[in-house]
Specification:
OB fold (Dihydrolipoamide Acetyltransferase, E2P), five-stranded antiparallel sheet, 2 helices, mainly beta
Length: about 130
């Protein structure tokens, strides 16, 4: 027996293409507290590219490691999200509360451990309201 229905526009159906090297707007879609390979506290997050039409696209993954030599990146990320309180102030980052934060970042194309193309954050762009 055949089934007939009225068609709609196709939805999704694939992985969003790799982003070309450049600056894009992202929204944190997921974040989780973990330990780095060296045993330091870390927040692993997934951010989705915000397209001009308001929909989300390609996911790019990042890590914020709370080790002395990597705190510059945490500061840069917090400032890009408009959450940096200023130099010398305490800031508590809760992975669950980060979901929904928006920021601009530079990305480039790199290779994963299987030789496939992937996007990687190279810099988080300081938000204008950060005042830096």
């Amino acid at each position: 027996m055949a089934i007939t229905y009225t068609t709609g526009a196709p939805q999704g159906g694939g992985v969003d293409p790799i982003l070309e090297k450049g600056r894009y707007t992202f929204r944190v879609a997921d974040a989780e507290e973990k330990k780095s390979k060296a045993g330091n506290p870390m927040i692993e997050f997934k951010a989705r590219h915000l397209k001009e039409d308001g929909t989300t696209g390609r996911a790019v993954y990042g890590n914020l490691v709370f080790a002395e030599k990597a705190l510059w990146k945490v500061d840069q990320f917090a400032a890009a999200c408009g959450k940096h309180p200023g130099e010398g102030e305490d800031l508590t980052l809760d992975a669950e509360e980060m979901v929904g934060w928006e920021f601009e970042a530079e990305v480039e194309i790199t290779k994963d451990d299987k030789g496939r193309d992937r996007n990687e954050f190279t810099a988080f762009i300081l938000a204008e309201e950060a005042g830096f």
